[in-house]
Amino acid sequence: MSKPVFRFAPSPNGHLHLGHALSALLNARAAVALGGRLLVRVEDIDQTRCTPELERDMFQDLAWLGLRWEQPVVRQSDCFAFYREALERLQDTGLVYPAYLTRAEIKTFVSDREAEGASWPRDPDGAPLYPGDAAVLIEEKRERRAASGASFALRLDMKKAQERIGKQLFWEELGAEGPALFEPARKIAVDASAWGDVVLARKDTPTSYHLSVVVDDARQGITDVLRGQDLYHATSVHRVLQELLALPVPRYRHHRLILGDDGRKLSKSNSDTSLRSLRAAGMTHAQLRKRIGL
Ligand code: GLU
């Protein structure tokens, strides 16, 4: 069997925190335990929030963690041509449509419905599902927006995509650490309807997180995607895109999350748990490992 290939794929849109340390170290440990390789991928498609300074700090943090990874590192901002090509292939299937509603319009539509007592479905991240332009904009207004060059998102028609695929999809879920790394895979049924019509790209950005991640995992020959439990449900969307684009399917290993003292998921906006500030406050490697349960 060929060597497993793992990747740690952070976004330099803020400083890395304890949760990233856990993810990076679990990827490194799993690669060693399974005789595999480790790649680092810089997920910097959001060119307004990701900066060269944050990327430099990120590599310093990873070096401090003692992480070793292969060179060269793939930077998503260098790969837009690959995403554009994948997007065009999806557009050719007729399953992608330009969606003109602004975030504020979606919000108003949903709160109006909820004020009437109707519930509106939300995706696993808590965002309301896209209602479809037709539900909100009269056709004439939609055409005017399209003609005036208004901004839009390219969305996947999830219902049609599932009909096109025509079968229940699955992924293989395995353990992320310790003896569980070697346990047999569990077969997880994909539930992509829970996400509704996901965004694949925007007028000025030829990709979204979901699209670039599946394209890169395939291009880089990733066999094992080991990442946080917060991305568990996103795997359903990734499976649909892999199927539509005929991409190879990696195994998935979602790991536990590190919670802050308030019991909530850590966020890059809270500098108290950033690796930089903990390091500056004198935290040692041993203390770090203890804090993240390694
Ligand atoms: N770039 C994503 C993040 O920092 C991780 C993507 C992934 O592992 O699939 O949350």
UniProtKB/TrEMBL annotation:
GO MF assignments: ATP binding; glutamate-tRNA ligase activity
Record flagged with keyword Magnesium: no
According to its UniProt record, which protein family does this protein belong to? Answer: Belongs to the class-I aminoacyl-tRNA synthetase family.
What's an example GO cellular component term for this entry? cytosol
| Taxonomic superkingdom | Bacteria
What InterPro entries does the record tag this protein with?
aa-tRNA-synth_I_CS (IPR001412), Glu/Gln-tRNA-synth (IPR000924), Glu/Gln-tRNA-synth_Ib_cat-dom (IPR020058), GluQ/Sye (IPR049940), Rossmann-like_a/b/a_fold (IPR014729)
Which of UniProt's keywords are assigned here?
Aminoacyl-tRNA synthetase, ATP-binding, Ligase, Metal-binding, Nucleotide-binding, Protein biosynthesis, Zinc
Q: What is this protein called?
A: Glutamyl-Q tRNA(Asp) synthetase
Q: Where is the Glutamyl/glutaminyl-tRNA synthetase class Ib catalytic domain?
A: 6-281
Keyword Nucleotide-binding (UniProt): yes
Gene Ontology BP terms: glutamyl-tRNA aminoacylation
